[in-house]
């Protein structure tokens, strides 16, 4: 068995998966997923790669592949149901009979009690019938919560 070849395959797979996760979380979901968990998994995969390439540990191949599959399953089930931009449509539907305008802001998420993997809500600054306010939108359920704008 060529452990270095296995290590190279798994390294490419792990790095591509992690970069894909980071891209989706930052570019599409405005960083509402908890990075700590997925960074921890990625670091553990790198340790397992060391075990594969340097120590020639056959069990580490299975462990690394299994960890990748578990991370993928967790991501699929915890990823938001819609992107930040799609969330604007949900807010517009929620206030369909109101005059609403989105105000550009650098703050596009806010902490919530969403859980281990999804720990932030989308945050929008809006003008609702001429009054500025904030709207928090849960990225999985679509629950809309109003709050006072402090930024």
Describe the protein in words.
The protein has 151 residues and is an alpha+beta fold. It folds into two domains: 3-78; 84-147. 51% of the residues lie in helices and 18% in strands. It has four helices and five strands. Strands 1, 2, 3, 4 and 5 form a five-stranded antiparallel beta sheet that branches. A hairpin with a 6-residue loop joins strand 4 and strand 5. Helix 1 runs antiparallel to helix 2 (35-53), helix 1 runs parallel beside helix 3 (58-78) and helix 2 (35-53) runs antiparallel to helix 3 (58-78). The longest helix has 26 residues, at 3-28. It is rod-shaped and about 70 Å long. The termini are far apart.
Major pleated sheet:
5 strands, antiparallel
What percent of residues adopt helix (DSSP H or I)?
A: 40-55%
Counted up, domains total: 2
N-to-C order of helices and strands: HHHHEEEEE
* Separation, N- and C-terminal Cα atoms: 58 Å
Secondary-structure-based class equals alpha+beta
**Mean pLDDT across all residues, rounded?**
94
Low-confidence stretches: none
- Give the C-alpha Rg: 20 Å
Helical segment count: 4
Gross morphology is rod-shaped
Number of strands: 5
Q: Give the percentage of residues in beta strands.
A: 15-25%
């Amino acid at each position: 068995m060529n452990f270095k070849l296995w290590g190279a395959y798994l390294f490419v797979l792990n790095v591509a998966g992690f970069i894909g996760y980071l891209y989706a979380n930052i570019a599409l979901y405005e960083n509402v997923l908890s990075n700590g968990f997925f960074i921890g998994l990625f670091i553990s995969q790198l340790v397992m790669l060391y075990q594969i390439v340097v120590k020639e540990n056959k069990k580490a191949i299975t462990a690394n592949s299994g960890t990748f599959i578990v991370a993928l399953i967790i991501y699929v089930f915890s990823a938001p149901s819609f992107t930040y931009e799609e969330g604007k449509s949900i807010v517009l539907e929620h206030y369909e009979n109101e005059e609403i305008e989105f105000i550009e802001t650098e703050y596009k998420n806010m902490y919530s009690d969403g859980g281990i993997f999804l720990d932030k809500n989308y945050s929008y600054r809006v003008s609702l019938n001429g009054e500025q306010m904030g709207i928090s939108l849960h990225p999985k359920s679509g629950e809309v919560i109003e709050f006072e704008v402090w930024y």
